[in-house]
From TrEMBL:
InterPro entries: KR_dom (IPR057326), NAD(P)-bd_dom_sf (IPR036291), Sc_DH/Rdtase_CS (IPR020904), SDR_fam (IPR002347). This is Short chain dehydrogenase. PANTHER family: DEHYDROGENASE/REDUCTASE SDR FAMILY MEMBER 7B, DEHYDROGENASE_REDUCTASE SDR FAMILY MEMBER 7B. The keyword Protein biosynthesis does not apply.
Length: 263
């Protein structure tokens, strides 16, 4: 079991949405937190919402342009070695394949795949040295299937899932646990901030996101999975689509081709 009380937890993408909710709940459970995101002012706002702001350190980071080793070294300065790393930062996408610049795919892969891999690799040596640690990868239901307007996002999240499975199989003897969480629709700014085909912001709150699960409920389920050492969990009603694809692939293919994903 991975108990949060007294543990040092590093959360990326902690300035809003799921990351903010994860921070607030972990603080209530007695964790010491290192929070990272690009916006220092928003990190400070989240810090003030935590149960014990004195046990919350802020480490602003742009995960598209950073030194993983330097970031990991700075994170350890606050409270010591990291016990739980939560790779939550990421971009979504809202653009058709043929309308998406190649550079947009590169940007999505940089933040949604290469950044969590780099940060994990920079943090793992200290976890291994002390005999254990837990890496949480925040994927998506599109870690399990592709969907319209998400070709780059689905590709990055598929890659993240593959990396997580392989790393877990390699490092379990060293006491390293990996949890892949795959949320469906959650009430965050993910669609507003999603990249369009030319790299700008989508700027629209999707109705499916607006009607989705509360970020606090999603975060609670993530922490329950981590505390129970669950290796993979799909969060939300969208889990039924994963089961549909597995057991009725033809029906799933028919449905996803005709889905209006943004409504």
């Amino acid at each position: 079991m991975t108990q949060l009380t007294g543990k040092v937890v590093w959360i990326t993408g902690a300035s809003s949405g799921i990351g903010e909710a994860l921070a607030i709940i972990a603080s209530k459970r007695g964790a010491k937190l290192v929070l990272s995101a690009r916006r220092a002012d928003e990190l400070a706002r989240v810090q003030a919402l935590c149960a014990d702001p004195a046990k919350v350190a802020l480490l602003p980071l742009d995960l598209t342009n950073f030194s993983p080793s330097e970031a990991a070294a700075k994170a350890r300065i606050f409270f010591g070695d990291i016990d739980v790393l939560v790779n939550n930062a990421g971009w979504s996408q809202r653009s058709m394949t043929m309308d998406t610049d190649l550079e947009v795919y590169r940007r999505i892969m940089e933040l949604d795949f290469f950044a969590p891999v780099a940060l994990s690799k920079a943090t793992l040596p200290s976890m291994i040295a002390k005999g254990g640690g837990h890496v949480v990868m925040v994927g998506s239901v599109v870690s399990k299937f592709g969907a319209p307007l998400r070709s780059g996002y689905a590709a990055a999240k598929h890659a993240l899932a593959g990396f997580t499975e392989a790393a877990r199989a390699e490092l379990w003897r060293q006491g390293i646990k990996f949890t892949l969480v795959c949320p469906g629709f959650v009430q965050t700014q993910v669609s507003v901030n999603a990249l369009n085909g030319t790299g700008g912001s989508h700027g629209i709150m999707d109705a499916t996101i607006q009607k989705g699960m509360l970020a606090s409920d999603c975060a609670e389920r993530i922490w329950r999975a981590v505390e129970s050492n669950v290796e993979e969990t799909i969060i939300g009603a969208e889990a039924k689509l994963v089961h549909l694809k597995r057991f009725f692939p033809g029906l799933f293919s028919y449905a996803i081709k005709r889905a209006n994903i943004t409504k």
